[in-house]
Design brief:
about 130 residues
Length: about 130
């Protein structure tokens, strides 16, 4: 009976270790996505002056957003931690004011890595807005 309880305890500890590992790696990937979204939001160009407000607007281009996010990820030392790190195709802007960055990576949980040799795919999505103020 002691051996049975010990086996169950080890199994639970292994599962919890794997879940914690995936959770922490997702938080690290989300942090990298946040930085990439901020860098992408800073890649704006000045748009036309609105007649009502009299001030220029910040406009984002989807291609520039994708490029700025990819450059940030490539230059970040945090990117070396992840396996199969990629900027997903959904990265860009929908409204011309909000940068959306989607990063994907693979996580290899400890101990049970032989069960999932390709790793567990995780995705992090972050947004940032450009706004000009006086």
């Amino acid at each position: 009976m002691v051996v049975g309880y010990l086996a169950v305890a080890l199994l639970v500890a292994t599962v919890m270790l794997g879940i914690t590992s995936v959770y922490l790696e997702h938080k690290r990937l989300l942090s990298l996505a946040d930085g990439a979204a901020l860098a992408a939001a800073d890649s704006f160009t000045l748009g036309e002056v609105a007649a009502q407000s009299g001030s220029p607007a910040a406009l984002l281009d989807p291609g520039r957003v994708r490029s700025a996010a990819a450059d940030f990820v490539a230059g970040s030392p945090a990117a070396l931690r992840f396996d199969s790190l990629a900027v997903a195709g959904e990265t860009g802007t929908r409204d011309g004011a909000t940068a959306v960055v989607v990063l994907t990576a693979a996580v290899h949980p400890p101990i049970v890595n032989f069960l999932v040799p390709g790793g567990i795919r995780i995705e992090a999505r972050s947004t940032a807005r450009s706004r000009l103020t006086r």
